[in-house]
User: Fold this.
Amino acid sequence: MGDITEILASALRVTMPVLLTALGAIYAERSGVVNIGLEGMMLTGCFWGAYGALHCGAVNGCLLAILMGMAMAGIHALVTITFRVDQIVSGVAINILAYGLARFFSMALFGMATTSPQVPGLEKISLPILSEVMVLKPLVTELSPLIPVGLLLVPLTYWVLERTVFGLRLQAVGENPLAADTLGVSVIRYRYAGVLLSGAFAGLAGAYLSIEHTRMYVEGMTQGQGFIALAAMIFGNWKPFASLGAAFLFGFAEALSFRVAQNKVIPYQLIKMIPYLLTIAVLAGVVRKAQPPAAGGVPYSREGE
Amino acid sequence: MDRKLKIRLLRLTAPVGAVLFAVLLSSVFLIAIDKNPLTVYLTMLAFGLGRMDSIAAILFNATPLIFSGLAVAISFKAGMFNIGVEGQYFIGAVCAAWVGFAMPGLPAVVHIPLTLLAAMTGGMLWALVPVYLKVKRGVHEVISTIMLNYVAYSLVHYLIADLFMDHNQKIPEGLGSALIRTPKFLESAMMPTIHAFMALWGVELPGYIYVNWFLMLALVVAAGVGYLLNRTPLGYELRAVGHNPLSAEAAGIRTETVYIKTFLLSGAIAGLTGLSHLLVFYEYMDLDFPKNFGFNGIAVALIGGNHPMGIVLAALLFGFLSRGAEGVQTILGVPMDAVVIMQGIIILSVVVVAGILGRYLRRLEKKEAP
Amino acid sequence: METVLEFENVTKRFPGLVANDQVSFDVRRGEVHALVGENGAGKSTLVNMIAGLYRQDEGEIRLWGEPVSNGGPRGAIAQGVGMVHQHFMLIHRFNVVQNVILGFEESCSRFGCLDLRQAREMVEELCRCYDFRLNLSVPVGTLSVGQQQRVEILKSLYRGANLLILDEPTAVLTLQEVRALFENLRRLTAQGKTVIFISHKLDEVLNIADRVTVLRRGRVIATVNAMATDKKQLAEMMVGRPVLFQLDKPVSRPGETVLEMDQVVQGTDAGHHKLNRLTLTVRRGEIYGIAGVEGNGQRELVETIMGLMPYDSGDIKIQGRSNRGRSVRDIRAGGVAYIPDDRQQRGLSLAMTVWENAVLGLVRSDRYSRWWKLCTDRIRDFAARKVREFDIRLSSVELPIRSLSGGNQQKVILAREMSVDPELIIAAQPVRGLDIGAIEFVHRQLIAARTAGKAVLLVSADLEEVLSVADRVGILYNGAIVKEFIPGELETETIGEYMLGAGKEAAVWTES
Assistant:
């Protein structure tokens, strides 16, 4: 029993960056902008999170990471929404750019290209009452405060999308931008908002990785988690709660792979493939039909060029 | 001015302008770390172009990018986005590695082509999965290839750490355990460098640079892709499907077949990507086998405008940038990574300029019509 | 009478063309004002300026005496303009309520949070007020076209529109739905709303409009009272010369059967077939016309013949050979030419050059390629020859075909399809969006082909076109041919009833 909660707790920890980024991806994709630059935005968050934490404390580190994630997202927005360049192309470039920027600033600010010094983390929290129950202990004690924050962002995202004016309009520009435009809903503004939000979430996810998870910045530490987040979002059918489920499933597989690696039953490299293979299976309709936003990936221009 | 001439001139100068703009923008970062951009660029030029070993290094750097750039471009032309070149060349390389160490007794004239064939087959197989899923199940190739890249990383890691692991290696002194790597490649599988050939022309290349015959192969493949696209029925159909699959289908072109052929071709070329390093520089495949040629291939294809000639030039540009970066790092102490930033900015400015230019040209063409 | 909208010397230019040239006219309160003109006459540009999507380059547009604000679509809406676009501006995944409030959520939201219950009540109230019957909670994508149009009008009314602009509102409606729409419009004008009605169907215009403004090549030709004009006069003003509503046509001499469709069933979603035991034959030397309201299986009919869609049961035979298991290429090689309804999507590759488009799908033939080599010189020669033969206006065959006008694009398709010397020609909406000159050209080509002994299947949403061009007509309703006749045999009123399912299939039809 204790073993299971132990695994669940570790699954929750690895789920968090994927979940946060996936939630961000929902905003961008629902507004009609595909963002495969999330990986790079996350990496940017890792670096600036660590830098901020080192110099001004962990909380400010998180804020700086959010800001820098948004800055990278701003580039993606500028290139894809204003200049209407192919969104995949821009995303690829963002990833390359983010990788270079992180190395460059790491060299310039930490004096090393690949790692930062140890950074302070956020103050850990324990949930009252629940932590008295022995079985649950690993799940509810010594938590990063970002974990409850991340979990709360799931219903919040759902509420924003379904119950607010902002969410209604955001979805409208992703489904039928021309229609939204004729109603005076600014396609550009809402798509910028969607992309910037995705950058903020990815930045925060990066900060979680460097400040809370490893306590330092390490080059390339995102290891494709931005793409896994994209996968979780697709697996979750562009919906927040389902994306949480998908992210947790992937996290669980990952947590399990640590265990299995110790036992050497199945090579852990093979377990690492699971999220990717699952995503492909979902898209192939093996599990169910995917329903992406209707105008996703298509640049919008009023005069139709 | 004559409008046609204007269009042609714009097409040629635009990418150059975009690169210059990127250089300008990158200067900001250099100034931020208190370096004079002009000195940096001049040093880069002098070091990168002024020495024979630099030229050779640029050619060596550019070789894999020509392959991966072509692989990406050919899928682009058919209206698809092969982000999976990364995974395809990893699988191709591991197949070539296996042929390279596991088949003793073959003469080099058989063994080398066999490794190439293995690499191409591996790349094709890895490309077959996404295109099959696209054609039969409607899975968008961008997502499936991204996912397959990570599957490929893990699979290759597993293969060299487990199935192909060299258990007979001499464990170096001071190390407790065996290194994770394949057995050494046989001599007959190694691609020779072009040093002897160049010596015939009186050019002495330094021994520590591994520019090799894969460069020539890359140029031949580039020419072949150019011919295929513009001078063959398959190339025509490929472009027709790329521009508008609906009309191609209605006209009787078998779009699914074209998709499959294109992706297999793309995968085959992708499979060759890592070999210029693997079969020349490395003697075995291990975890240091270079990553990111596939992703950089996307950049090269974009900057080269998906045109074979442009791709060769863009690959050389990238080769020059990384060689020049080595120079400024040793000479001026500027971090090499300034160059990776520059690459990122170059891609963005090239695609933005290309997009704007494309719309502008379309307007010009409209004026052209009565 | 009070003037609602006024145009004064308004000019709007696009790269390479003047869409509106010194346009002046006015619209009065409470009237239905029709704007008529051929495709490309500048109607859409004009209304897009009223709706705030475009801005004029010169001149002034006044709404209720005030210059049109340059606040874009929102500004126009604030001034009481409601636009119902030809292609509905609906979010298919949203329900009716969400679609109606989108963009104007102030009255049913607080601090940015939606009050969905209140929104629903407001929309229900509107529906009661104007007697619109709609299911508010299903995604609008599942509604019928007529219902979707009602949602569009509802949207405008919700925004307090006093001037409603309807762009080609009847193009996609059944006759019944058109009648219902006209009733609704009369009710609206009776309550003091003003309607601008854009159409090129002159009969409808004369039926609903009070006044008519005719546009030609971006210019206003005249504004006339509907009572004081007739169809012939309007058509002449639209085109700029007398128009013959009759085509010169030699007598049809039908020969053996070329196309035979026998009990074809296609598509089985939710127990509803797209093609429902469709049976027809087309013979050599005749044009068989398909009449019917769009969406009754026209696309499926054409695409199953071409092999672009599979069919479930029954059989299609072309010159005696079954279509089953054959590819598009194979069917075409058997002597079938295809003019698709969506020229730009299905017929051409817009980014490719004119000469490349001239052989789309044909490059595998011996004429244009040798195994692995494309004979580009020969293709260019061929294209240049066809340009002369079909009088295609262009400056160079090296240009992307997108730079050509619609008529010239259609001529390229015709030239290509006729070049294979087909036995059967499938022409789907072959003149949609063309000007009258090009329309005549296309019709003459089809008639010449049938007179030369080819079989032609003509599918059109325009009943007049079918009646004047075809030798035999089948009425397509709900995926089946419900009536066959020879033009002149039936009254238009009777044909209309068949198009609405008055035949034996009517029992099956239930309105959703």
Q: What stands out?
A: Residues 504-512 of chain C have pLDDT under 50 and may be disordered. The first strand of chain C starts at residue 3 and ends at 14. The first helix of chain C runs from residue 43 to 50.
